[in-house]
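Sample entry follows:

_____
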Amino acid sequence: HQAEIELNEHALTVDTAIHTDNLLKVPMNAKEVPAVVKVPTNAKEVPVDVKVNRPFLLFVEDERTQRDLFVGKVLNPQVE
């Protein structure tokens, strides 16, 4: 998978997300959330390949309200 993200000294941010048929499964609630595969940013930004091989936290925040829309924790990322 590939993502285009903005790296700066303040935070890792995403401008827009395009959802695909890939899914991030959330077993504890037996729900599924669309996974982000490609994230376009400014045309001047250079795409960054992101490979996750260790546990991580995932936050989706509404920039206007600064409220979390989704919070997730991936303990054992694996490629199927």
